[in-house]
Amino acid sequence: MIVDAHQHFWAIARGDYGWMEGNPAVDKIRNDYRPEHLDVFRRKLGIDRTVLVQAAPSIEETEYLLGIADAVPWVGKVVGWVNFEDLSHLKHLERFAGHAKFAGVRPMIQDISDKDWMLREDVQWAYEAIIELDLSFDALGFPVHLQNFLKLFDRYPSMRVVVDHCMKPRIRDNEFDGWAEGIEAIARNTQAFCKFSGLVTEATKDWSIVSLKPYAGHVLKCFGAERVMWGSDWPVVELAASYDGWWRAAHELTGTGQRQELIFGATAAEFYRLN
To answer: Is the pLDDT of residue 256 over 90?
Structure first.
């Protein structure tokens, strides 16, 4: 099974993609993206399943994504959203957990100004519910969040966690050491997995395999292929590369043989429990 462990769909008219509003940097992807658009790449590259990830902080978007998953056989799982600051959203989490294709949740921590938000007392109920309902947690943030994520994962060692986009190292600024130390600490001290995605959008416009290699190599060294899964981050990836361009680069960066079988399918299938 070949798996794209991180992709998005959105319909602009839905109106809850706040991160796009007033942001000229994302003009290129301010369009509707639907299953038929991704299916072109999926068929071309032989991708069997995808993991559809939230892109808006709303219950309505999660319901929208689950509706797509119901209609599209190759969408294997959905990572949704609930409001961690509202205990009444436990009912939504419980409701979503009853859907066969619902995997877990992703709070949009990278967009929250308080870097300590994830450790606030009023949001702890959500992690406890994730564990109780046997769901997964996608950790979306920046290198500044690494230390707090380590504290969080230590606090909830039984929570199934995957780090999104290698925690977005600042490749364009040649910042490596602080990020590398934080990633290594999470890999060594927790059971977290890591998504091999998002690197090209954190690099310069003229990125190359050479510029990505130190970051890719560090992730693979720290987590090992059995805890790393490839994701396209499509259509966000189109800000820096084509779907197939990142696919080819990721293959070049990850080696051959069993390692690629794990990274491009088996690891994601295990973590997200894909049939």
So the answer is: no
How far CA 164 is from CA of 5, 9, 29, 53, in Å, comes to 10, 17, 20, 11
- Tens digits of per-residue pLDDT, 190-199? 999 999 999 9
Domain 3-271 carries which CATH code? 3.20.20.140
The two structure tokens encoding residue 52: 């559809």
Q: Output the DSSP codes for 224-253.
A: -GGGEEE---BTGGGGTS-HHHHHHHHHHH
Separation of CA 158 from chain center? 19
Paired tokens of 241? 């590369």
Helix, coil or strand: residue 194? strand
Q: What is the pLDDT of residues 44-74, one digit of tens each?
A: 999 999 999 999 999 999 999 999 999 999 9
Per-domain residue ranges of the chain:
3-271
Q: Is the preceding omega at residue 157 within 30 degrees of 0, hence cis? A: no
Q: Report the alpha-carbon distance of residue 242 to residue 95 in Å, rounded.
A: 36
Residue 76 burial (10 A CB sphere; 0-12, 13-18, 19+): buried
Q: What is the pLDDT of residue 255?
A: 86
Instruction: Report yes or no on whether pTM surpasses 0.90.
Output: yes
State yes or no: cis peptide before 235, omega within 30 of 0: yes
